[in-house]
Write a structure and sequence with these properties.
The protein has about 270 residues and is of the alpha+beta class. The chain has a domain of about 180 residues. The chain is about 30% helix and about 30% strand. It has eight helices and 13 strands. The strands form four sheets. Strands 7, 8, 9, 10, 11 and 13 form a six-stranded mixed beta sheet that branches. Helix 3 crosses helix 4. The protein is globular.
Length: about 270
């Protein structure tokens, strides 16, 4: 077996420069242990027929180890994984059946027995990997919040939202660093959003803004009130949303995408 070439760079969490380890996003034990195909965003943007382009596997990159990248130093990878990873895995395994339950599309109320702070910190660690290496450094207190397992003060301006992925009507996995979204006529037209869509969860992180889809529930404040490793019964209203395009935060069905495209063509 060929030996993998070492990867060096800046750790997305602590900021040190050195050898990086492969960080699964989400954790490998949370169903992220099979190969995935990565599409080129340039190819999708330039395509006349997005659906056909997403079915075309030519030019795709195959990730044999699952979704992830070399983003964390070994110390940060091992430390955060041992502190927070199992709590997220437990929740993911409990929630997976709901992602394929048709009733979840209209919202399902559950009481989850979880370790809320651990789950929140695992999700934020994942978003650090999904974003540029300097992201954690630009958010006051984020590094301390994640590298001190006892810290409870969620950094100001950072919000995390949770929903289910509609397992029957979704076509793509998505991972996006902070992306600006412009909505004309909205009260807050500019939204900075980062996203991870990997069953069973659709995860959104916003910076200095609120996510505008009520189907995803904010967990940053309520989960941040608990102590490290504290287990609690947490009520959650979860909605299953479809992932059918490459746009972060876009949870339209295939029929809705076609309807909107037809309306735009008629106006154009």
């Amino acid at each position: 077996m060929a030996r993998r070439k070492a990867v060096f760079g800046e750790c997305h969490l602590c900021g040190t420069h050195g050898k990086l380890s492969f960080e699964h996003v989400p954790p490998e034990a949370a169903f992220n242990d099979r190969k995935v195909l990565l599409h080129s965003i340039e190819k999708l943007i330039s395509a006349d027929d997005i659906a056909a382009a997403m079915e075309d596997t030519s030019g795709t990159q195959i990730k044999q180890r699952g979704m992830g990248a070399y983003t964390l130093c070994e110390r940060c990878n091992n430390t955060t994984g041992s502190w927070y990873g199992s709590a997220y895995v437990e929740l993911a395994h409990a929630a997976m059946p709901l992602a394929f339950d048709p009733r979840s599309r209209g919202g399902v109320f559950v009481v989850a027995s979880i370790r809320p702070l651990n789950v929140l910190k695992q999700i934020l660690t994942m978003f650090c990997s999904a974003n540029a290496p300097r992201f954690a450094a630009t958010r006051d207190g984020l590094r301390r919040f994640l590298l001190n397992r006892e810290a409870r003060a969620v950094p100001g301006g950072v919000r995390v939202y949770l929903g289910l992925v509609d397992g029957e009507n979704s076509r793509v996995l998505r991972q996006a660093g902070l992306t600006g979204r412009l909505t004309l006529g909205a009260a807050n037209p500019i939204l900075l959003v980062s996203e991870i869509v990997f069953p069973p969860f659709a995860l959104i992180m916003t910076v200095d803004s609120e996510f505008d889809d009520p189907r995803l529930v904010e967990i940053s404040v309520p989960f941040g009130r608990f102590d490290y490793d504290q287990k609690a019964e947490v009520p959650l209203l979860l909605h299953a949303v479809p992932s059918t395009t490459y746009f972060p935060g876009d949870y339209r069905t295939t029929d809705e995408v076609r309807r909107d495209r037809a309306a735009n063509d008629a106006q154009g």
